[in-house]
Structures are given as C-alpha cells and as structure tokens.
Amino acid sequence: MMRLTIFLRLVIGYLVIFTLLIVVSIYVTTKLQELEDITNSILNINNRILTYNKKLIDALLSQVQYERKFIILKDDDLYNNFIAANSDFTQYFKEMTSLADSTHVESLFENIKQSHQRYQFLFHKEVESLRSGQRYSQDWYKQEKEKAINAIMNELKELRTYSENNTYEKIKKLGETGTNTHKIAVVMTALSLIFGITISIFITRSITKPLTVMRNKTREIARGNYKSDLNISSPPEIGELVQDFNFMCNKLKEIDKMKSDFFSLMSHELRTPLTSIKEGTTLLLDGIGGEANVKQKRILRIISEESNRLIDQVNSILDLSKMEAGMMTYKFVKADIAPLINKVLVEIEPLAKAGDIKTELNISSELPLMKIDIERMLQVLRNLIGNAVKFMPEGGLIKISAMVENGNLKVSVADTGPGIPNVNLSTIFDKFKSSTTLKGTGLGLVIVKNIIKAHGGKVWAESKPGQGSTFTFILPA
Description:
Blueprint lengths: L5 H68 L2 H22 L5 H30 L5 H85 L13 H50 L8 H32 L6 E4 L1 H18 L3 E6 L6 E4 H17 L6 E9 L2 E8 L6 H4 L9 H4 L5 H11 L3 E6 L5 E8 L1
Helix pairs in contact: 1-2, 1-4, 3-4, 4-5, 5-6, 6-11, 7-8, 8-11
C-alpha cells in the first residue's frame, strides 16, 4: 500500500478543511438569500397590497360620494369627479393585481373586479335613465349598488386580513429560519472546526510519532544499543530516513564489535606478558637470582603493583567484552548478601585505615536469601565500596546499608567525598566515561551495571558536588 508523502498529507488536509469552510459558507449564503427573499416578499408584496387596499377603499368611497351627489344634483362636474375616482380605482386595482402571489388572492381580485364592474354598470344605466328622462326604480338601483359596494368592501377587508396574516406568517418564518440558520451554522462551524483540528492532529501525529520513536532510538544508541529494529509506519520521507537509520545502526554495531574484538584480542595478548612480568618480579623479590638491595626492592614492588593494576584492567576489559557479547556465564544460587558485604569490608580495611576512613554498616536482620552469582556480586561490591574508599579524602566516612524495600533488596554505598558534577552524573555508568570523574579505567561501573542488569535489577548514582555520593542498586526478591 502506497503511503502518502508529508506534502500530499498536508495538501489533502488543507483541501478538506477548505472544502468544509466552503460548504458552511454556501449553506449560510443560501439561508441568508432565503431570509432576504422573505423580507423582500413582505416589503414588495404584502406591504404594497395593504397600501393599495387603502387606496382602493378611498377611491371607492370617493366614487360613492360623487355618485350619490350626482343622482341628487345632476351636476356634470360631480359625474366627471366620479369618472376620475373610477379611473384611480382602476389604476390602483391594475397595479395591485400584478402582486398576486396565490390563487386565493387572485380569487379575491376577481371578485372585486366583478363587483366593481357591476357597480359601474348600475351607475351608468341610472345616469342614462336620468339623462333620457326615463322613469326607473331608484330604490332598486340604490340597493343593488350598495350590494356591489358592500361586496367590494368585504373582499377588500378579507384581502387586508389575508395580507396581514400572510405578513405575520412570513415574519414568523423569518424568525424561525434565522434561528435555525444560526443553530445549524454554529453546529456546522463547530463540526468543521473539530474535524479540521482532528485532521491537523492526525497529520501532525503521523509526522511527530515516528520522529519521537527515532529520538528514543537515538537515546538507545547513545546508551550502546545498536540493534537495527526500527520499523515505523510513516510517510515515505521518514520511511527512507528510518532505512538510513537502521543502516547506521548496523554500521555502528559492526564498529562496536570491531572495537570489542580489538579490546578482547589485545587483552588476551597483553595478559600473557603482564603475567610473566608479575611472576618475574615476584621471583626477584623472593631473592631468586640474587639478593636485591633496598632501592631495587622498592622499584620491584612498584613494578609488581603496576603489573597487578594492568592485569586488573585487562581482566575488566575481558569481562566487559564477554558481557557485551552475551558470553558471560552466571552461576545463580540462593545466598545471603550480608556476608559478601562483610567480606569486601575486610578486604579493603587496610586501605581504609591508611586513609583514616571510617565505615558504618547498617544491615537489616531480615534480609531474604537472593538468587545471585556470588563471585559477580562480590565484583559489584568491590567496585562500589572500593571506589568509595580509593577516592575518599582522609578522615571521610562511608555508610553501607542493606534493607528490604517494597519487597526488593536495596543496597546503598554512601560517602562524604567531593561528589560528582551533575554534567557527569548521567553518563557515569557509560563505557570510558566514569574515568573523568573517578580517575579509573571507566569500566568498573559499566561492569557493575551489566552484572546488576543480568540479575534483573537496576543501579543508579545520586550526588551533589561537595556533599558526597550515593551508589544504590536494587535486586528483585
């Protein structure tokens, strides 16, 4: 399955968000147009019908007034005024009929038209009778004209009522549409915003998550884990970077193996001549080959001590090489750690007395038997306690404690020495890093870390410059 590039993900994400905004805008625009149409309908139809309705009533009443006066006075000016009022009525009615927006209104208009034509016909017939001197029934004409006028007035009243009700319904619809539009627009905007944020988070997460994994892997590499197992579901650009990253890990693993093999080989090569030098020095000190004078013996002792130191360093390198290669064998047995601590204290007692260093022991009486490799655990204790003694100023104090905490065995070695700078504290258990702080080979604490890790525990250091250091390890019960 082809994965989208970061660029395409961003483009698609922005297009989706832009499309959502367009949809919301179109919806709001459509509803606003609907509101405008309703408003225009009220202004241009209903209001105008009501206005023409009033004008028609006024024109009709003027006709009635002139018509009745003419019947009594028979004045041609009154007749002409009637014709003028009739012309106004006809003009208003013609303009109003163009506003019909329903069959009901058209029906009302047709009834008004017929009643008005009936009224005009009756009036004109009565005028003809008056002018020709014919006798006619004025009461009948009066009743018929009143019927026509009443019919017109009733139709106009019904038209006004209908227009007012229609206006009220449109205003009500206007309010409902506005409210619904507001609610739906808010909901759509909120959903678009949530969807947009979700898309943004998804795109960002698809980029940052693999970068976070790579950052954590970088930290593992910094701690010496060169395993090329990085497999991330990611965009192609980062996928290529992951491949290069794994390639780099393989190369680093090869280089680290070459380095370990080199140290292992050199250690083997160095141990043989160093052992020969040590044994030869011992023989000379024992008088083999002739009695040595005081000065010669002093030089031979220095050579013997330095040979021992070099042999210890070579053995440390060999042990670390085995640990890193997974070839170190452990013989786990159930044992009490208290005797091991006492044994190490006896071993370093001469060195402690030489520096006027006091030791304080605090071992719980309820320590459980632990499944440990006795020789390797002695190696851990010798490193931690030995470092505390070797680098302690004269008159210092070392506190060694062993107790059960949360079901686990906790052992601490605290001193009152110069302490470790914060900048070195995080790397003190890395290869060749502790030497800058403890003035050693830089392998002792690394070996401690590997042995404790092989026992399923963990080890750490706490220190403040000028306030001493505390090295602690925990072993699971």
